[in-house]
Amino acid sequence: MTTLARKPGNRGALAMLYVGAGLTVIAALSPFIDQATTTVLADHIRKGYPTYGTGEINTAVTAYAVLLAVVGVLGLLGWLGTVWAVRAGKGWARWSATGLFAIALCIAIAAATTKDTNGEVGLAPQLGWLQLLPCVPGLAAVVLLLRKAG
Question: Are 135 and 104 in contact (CB under 8 A)?
Fold first, then answer.
């Protein structure tokens, strides 16, 4: 019986896992980068809540940044744990990767589409849809791992 680590093609799955981890870091850092450069999130909040003052907008931006950073750290732990499991040849790695992908996809869709009390999406669309980007290599990794299961 060939272990998961020795199955041909797992190099591709591992590459996708590393790409996904990198994109997760970018997505997690995006609100902080935005805060220092383009202020898309602050502008989005200001537009949705015109009565908010600077302090309230900054509080909302910080809350989103912290939330996305926590989700990003948890996501990165998931990526690295999956990399470890695949490299160690753990048979359950493909199922763990599938479960983590499903959870990540649900969280990313929620981040991109959840409406705030003002009727608009809460997170600026550019940042919300960026949360879905790591799911693309995640899907590729799951497909590669499941394809190699047979």
Answer: yes
Using the Cα atoms of residue 138, residue 141, residue 147 and residue 150 in order, give the sign of their dihedral: negative
Predicted confidence (pLDDT) per residue in 47-83, tens digit = 999 999 999 999 999 999 999 999 999 999 999 999 9
pLDDT (tens digit, 9 = 90+) per residue, 74-119?
Answer: 999 999 999 999 999 999 999 999 999 999 999 999 999 999 999 9
Cα R_g (the chain), whole angstroms? 18
Q: Could you give the CA distance from residue 15 to residue 136 in angstroms, rounded to a whole number?
A: 13
Relative orientation angle of helices 54-87 and 10-36, to the nearest 10 degrees: 170
Positive or negative: CA dihedral 89, 92, 98, 101? negative
3-state secondary structure of 55: helix
